[in-house]
Amino acid sequence: MSEPTRPLAPTPPARHRRLSPWRVLVALLVLGGVAYGVPLVVHDNLTSAAETPATFFAPYVDVTATPTENFQVAAMDPARQAVLGFVVASPTDPCQPSWGGYYSLTAADQNLDLRLRITQFESTGASVAVSFGGRANTPLASGCTVTATLASDYANVARHYHVSTLDFDVEGSALTDTAATRRRAEALAIDTAPGGPLAHAHVWLTVPGSLEGLGAASLAQVASLLSHHVPLAGVNVMAMNYGQPVRDMAKAIETTVTDTAAQVQKLANQFGDGLIGADLWAHVGVTVMIGQNDSPGEVVSLTDASRIAGFARANHLARLSMWSLNRDAPCGASSAVEVGVLSTSCSGVSQVGLAFSRVFDRLSGTMTSATAVSGTPLALDTSPADAPYPLWQPQATYVQGYKVVRSGYVYQARWYNSGSDPTATTDPWTSPWVLLGPVLVGAHPPTTTTIPAGTYPQWTATGVYRSGDRVLYRGEPYQAKWYNVGAGPSSALVDAAASPWRVLFSIPGEPPS
Prior knowledge:
- By secondary structure, this protein is α/β, with parallel strands linked by helices.
- Helix content is 24%, strand content 19%.
- It has 12 helices and 24 strands.
- The strands form 6 sheets. Strands 1, 2, 3, 4, 5, 6, 7, 8, 9, 10, 11 and 14 form a 12-stranded mixed sheet that branches.
- Helix 6 (178-192) runs parallel beside helix 7 (216-227), helix 7 runs parallel beside helix 8 (249-270) and helix 8 runs parallel beside helix 10 (302-314).
């Protein structure tokens, strides 16, 4: 049932004299050539909201940060929604998508098990968005100067992870990169056109805000996409890092969102959409930085979080996100919480783990399902013969980081253990194993690199071996740890501590030495 539309809350008065952002925006559009011959008046660029949906909460996850955030485990991401960041240009190939400049899509699947973890997440009914850009690296639109290739990159990432929500985080120097702004808009116009690979995708634009809403550069980003007929699901304002001490962060964030909504309404009118009331708010989102912000004197407390969630719910805001799930934890030991710390892995305020997530998760909205992007859903492979890592053995010992396959699923050791069945997990916080996800179709059994015959003597059951002796067994090298006779080198793969042999090759699944 549709709810009645409401007039927007009045925009607070300006706090001091300043140059109108609309005049600056016009100058940026002219200097940057945003229109490029495209008619300024377009229609239905903001996707229609026939009914006012509930606000959805989707925290950002810094995929390449350490320690790894296990968003795929329900108990570790109660929202069951996540925005994964950030896909950027590879330092070695500006038209090659990479995660944080560290991992290609393939390398992220191999080293971070990312595709597997996304599959696990979505198999439980959860939703994933992929975010492009961020502050720390070169955005694809800045690095890749071929528009058609850029469009292909965006579509390929969506297909690779089978996601239907794409978030474009434009900040820092990328905000004023007019050439990249144009390429991004043109590439997305190609992808989202009828019949395009992202014709049914949900595209979000995330830009920085201020105490007076969006600045001219952020407004130019919105205008660029609208002028190129890109159907925006919404504009997500980053209400954080204001650059000055803020006594009441919740109020400041509410003001930022309210001013942003008024600005989006003005742009929507300019480009022919004419959104008002609840329909407008259904195209606005906000991202807050929980706990200690980058700017001194700015702290979002749990009390602030409750007020922000209530504000989002009352105004039917489309989206609420936080930076980040990785930081939703106390700093220091539970008995000695450190306050005021600025960290990528904790909030810097007094809290229990996931406290902010549980406050924001009271919002009942849903992001999207993964079915909007064309392509075949990811299939699973339960055949032990295809396991990409060693099968779990009850008598073996496993160190932190070791990966095994048990009953068609991949698990990773959280600490040293032996005899603990990964499938017997009842509490993911206390289990020595964390579930990464199911074995995917196309997986291959583990292989090791063999070395040429004759490099070392072949092991024999009657041989006498002393500490330091090296042998070949089934083409793989081993070294004796102590005197032994008749002990097969393969015992090192079952129980490394008890075996008189040490492997001299890498075993798929074991952590890097």
